[in-house]
Amino acid sequence: MGNRLTQIATRTGDDGSTGLGDNTRVSKASGRPQAMGDVDELNSHIGLLLCEPLPADMRELLIDVQHQLFNLGGELSMPGYELLKDDALLQLDNALARYNAELPRLLEFILPAGTRAACQAHVCRTVARRAERAVVALQQHETMRAAPRQYLNRLSDLLFVLSRALNRMDGGSEVYWKSERLARQNDATE
Question: What protein family does this chain belong to (predicted)?
Answer without folding.
Answer: Belongs to the Cob(I)alamin adenosyltransferase family.
